[in-house]
Amino acid sequence: MPYYASSLAALTLIVLAAPVAADTPRPANMVYLRNLDPSIQQDIRYASAHNFTGAPLDGYNAAECVLSADAAKALVRVQAELARQGYGLKVFDCYRPSRAVANMGRFANLPGDPAKAEFYPRVNKQDFWRLGYVAKVSNHSRGAAVDVTLTGPDALPVQPWTAHTPAVDCTAGYGRRLPDGGLDMGTGFDCFDDLAHTANPGISQTARHNRQRLTAAMSKQGFTGYAGEWWHFTYSRNPVKAEPMDFPINPMP
Q: What are the two backbone dihedrals, phi and then psi, of residue 142, each rounded to the nearest 5 degrees?
């Protein structure tokens, strides 16, 4: 191999290599949501390759929702309220290790777009930060934020994703994009597009009503939504004062 090629290969390995983070124990106030309410469905995307980076993120050793105890209990109350209306919750992400946030940052600066066709077909990933789709520091890492959708009787059955599943634009019509078990919310989860903005008027009336129902139920229990992503909520009552955390998400004990 020519010298410049071998040097480039070595440099690529250095850039792609994630920094090694020493595993720290899970703080006592961080709990597994499944222990509190197993009826809340979970599809923890960053533990799999079905996310905007096209690969599992650092620190996701298990597909489990972990949250601060206060936020988790509030989410259980949301689930109970929605259940009385015939609806429910499905979470896509909860606590996010700081190493995973850094992982997202590295991805935005590296060549290659393995999942662009589904998650950000009209956005350049170098613009993720400017557009507010990726943060350098995330409330997810404080155990206070959750990415969630609404389930109900009109939801299409979930279709499991595999590496061979054709990529479909996340703004495609409900029923055309991969069914994730949630109701029609106007776009898929982690859709980096204007249509994913919570109050975007371009979505259908059904999707608008579903977003409003989800937002109302979450707000009632102390969660504040984010205008740029209909799925993102931060628990704002008794907010966690902790610095961002970096313990890995491991299987439940």
A: -95, 0
Quick: pLDDT tens for 131-155: 888 888 999 999 999 999 999 999 9
> Which two three-digit tokens encode residue 77?
């109350």
CB-CB contact of 210 with 183 (8 Å): yes
Closest CA to 65 of 9, 5, 143, 3: 143
Q: What is the pTM of this model?
A: 0.90
Burial readout 137-152 (b: 16 or more C-beta within 10 A, e: otherwise): ebbbbbbbbbbbbbbe
Classify 27-235 by CATH class. alpha beta
Domain boundaries, the chain: 27-235
Instruction: Give the E-state strand segments of the chain in sequence order.
Output: 30-32, 41-42, 66-68, 88-93, 145-151, 223-226, 229-235
> What is the pLDDT of the chain when averaged over all its residues?
91
